[in-house]
Structure formats: structure tokens, C-alpha cells
Amino acid sequence: MENLEIFAESLKKAFIAIGIDLPDKKIKEIAEKNLEEAGEFLLFQKYGRPAVKIAPRQLPSFEEIVKIGGFNNGYYAHLEKNETCRKAIFAPITSTGDEELVVYWENENQNIPGGADIYDYFKSKGFEVIEKAHPSLLVNAMNQLTEEKLTEMGIPPYVNIVLPTSEGSLLPRGGGDLCFLNAYRRGGERRLSLVGFGGDWSSNYAFLLRKM
After folding, report:
1. Residue 50 lies in a domain
2. pLDDT of residue 98
3. 9/69 same-domain check
4. How many domains does the chain have?
5. pLDDT value at position 184?
């Protein structure tokens, strides 16, 4: 916030110097947008791929999850009905620092192995899953990853955004399948759901990963 105020004041002086008089509210909006774009550029430079910086934020309810993540097609009801899923989603957040996550998507010919082999595959590329990743990371990431932003990043509209995690914290689907949490995307619609851990991963999936 302090950086925003300093930048906004500098912008105001620069505008006045060239004869442009804008309301403080408008100057603050311009400053905020420019700082956001600069941050995104620096993240891309740092990782060589699209990335987001996520501040920890507790998830209070499924209604708020839908709002925060822009899930205009709601959520898979099993996430609320299943005790294991519900407890994981609303577990207290213990991390206080921001998390920088790469949005990992290779191309339209992507074919990543499923099951435990996925961990070695990501390591071979210089990335890793977040150990016991809290589900809020995906929801809060989707708050930033609007459809417009994903398009700018080169992520097609049919690509789901997956939060892979360690085997010990996989979530169960109806029928007992172990899964990653998944933001399903199709035709502008979004739905918070689960996706099976075992199958291979086609170009329909992008992953939120940490750089090793």
C-alpha cells in the first residue's frame, strides 16, 4: 500500500508537470494498474513462464469461494458433502508469506504422465508441487487468473487449472478415486471440481507449480 501511495504521488507530479490535472482517484487507479502490470512482467522474467503471486486468504464458505474464484458454474457438490474434502478446504492457513506459482502449460501437444510419475516429470523440468498445498491457493489464484488474464498468458479457454499436491493430501472423489483440486473451464464458464490423479495429462490441463 505504501508503494502504491508513493507511486501515485510521483505520477501526480509528472502529470502536473506536463499540464494534465487528474482527480486523485483516477491517478491512484492508473498507479495501481501500472504496478500490477510491472509485477506480472517481473514474475514472467523471473520464471520464464506466466506466474502469479498469491497472498494467503482463508476461505470462509462455499458461497465466498464461488465469488473469490469467479466460479460462475458453481462447484462439485461432493466437495461440500464429503467430510475429508470439506475439512481440507476450510482448514486453517498456517503460511503467512506470499506464494509465487508458475502456471505450467506446455503446448497443445502436451502429454504429461499421471500418477506418482507426475512428480518426477515436473522435477525434470525444474518445478515441484507444493507439499500439502492448501486448497485456498487454487481459489485465490483463480481470483487473479481471470479469463482475460489467462488469454493474455496464452492459456486457451479450454485449459483447466489444476493444483497438484503431494500424495498424502490428495482429495477423494465419489467412488474413492484420489484427485487434485481443479478449476474446470469451458466457454467462459468455471467450476471448482476434482480431477483424477491417475490418468495422463493432455493439453486440457495447466498446473500451479513452484520453481525448484
Report:
1. no
2. 86
3. no
4. 2
5. 97
CB count within 10 Å of CB 10 equals 12
The per-residue DSSP string of the chain comes to: -HHHHHHHHHHHHHHHHTT----HHHHHHHHHHHHHHHHHHHHHHHHSS-EEEE-------HHHHHHHHT-TT-B-THHHHSHHHHHHHTSPP---S-EEEEEE---TT--B--TTHHHHHHHHTTEEPBTT--THHHHHHHHH--HHHHHHTT--TT-EEEE-B-GGGPEEPTTS-EEEEEEEEETTEEEEEEEESSS-B-TTEEEEEEE-
Please give the average per-residue pLDDT across 117-145, as a whole number: 93
pLDDT for the residue 136: 93
Q: Is residue 126 part of a domain?
A: yes
Please tell me the least confidently modeled range out of 32-36, 38-42, 65-69, 164-168: 38-42
- 94 domain-assigned: yes
**Residue 64: closest CA among 78, 55, 74, 56:** 74
Q: What does DSSP say about strands 205-211 and 160-163: parallel, antiparallel, or unpaired?
A: parallel
Bridge partners, 101 (sequence order): 52
Q: Distance between CA atoms of 7 and 132, rounded to whole angstroms? A: 37
Q: Kindly tell me if the per-residue pLDDT of 140 is higher than 70.
A: yes
The pTM assigned to this predicted structure is: 0.80
Domain shared by 185 and 142, yes or no: yes
Express each pLDDT in 26-46 by its tens digit.
Answer: 767 766 666 566 555 555 556
